[in-house]
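DATA SHEET
Item: assembly model
Revision: 1
Owner: S.N.
Input lines:
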Amino acid sequence: DAGVTQSPTHLIKTRGQQVTLRCSPKSGHDTVSWYQQALGQGPQFIFQYYEEEERQRGNFPDRFSGHQFPNYSSELNVNALLLGDSALYLCASSNPGGSDYGYTFGSGTRLTVV
Amino acid sequence: QKEVEQNSGPLSVPEGAIASLNCTYSDRGSQSFFWYRQYSGKSPELIMSIYSNGDKEDGRFTAQLNKASQYVSLLIRDSQPSDSATYLCAVRETGRRALTFGSGTRLQVQP
């Protein structure tokens, strides 16, 4: 049973560029949440997708956008990259209909902006 | 601003001791509480979930919840060096689908 898969694992981008990160949720999960984790900090919520719509959004600028596909996979797009966007980006999947509504995290994408 | 607070540590305990990790939260209506373990350079891994006041035990781990005090804790009995990691407290706040995480407590278990 595949867990949450994210790609790519590592990425180096130049300031001002755009980046797309991808996530496939765990089998049976239909909800995908994206988090940004800076070094030494806890994960910060970016947004959550369910039924192909953004259901909730954290305190992130519009440069951060996403999409969910009919197969529940998701993309995170970041435009006009800033140095401060360098972080570990985590995708978490969940099934709100399940009895234990926790998250399963992917291994993350380490984004470095230079 | 809803918050989840944790002492950043490091919390250092000798092998075999009980490690006690604490978390407070600001949203009194929060209903779901989780503890995640994160090894350096890795992604968070769910250890425990708790929804009702009291204790919940799973192996060497015990989660404790006190909603009146807005306090949740994690006890690790017979701590092992392999338990050395950052422990993240996460809360699902009222009316929100997403989890809010604390900044984590770094635990060091000394052999």
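QC remark: Chain B touches chain A through 23 residues (CB under 8 Å).
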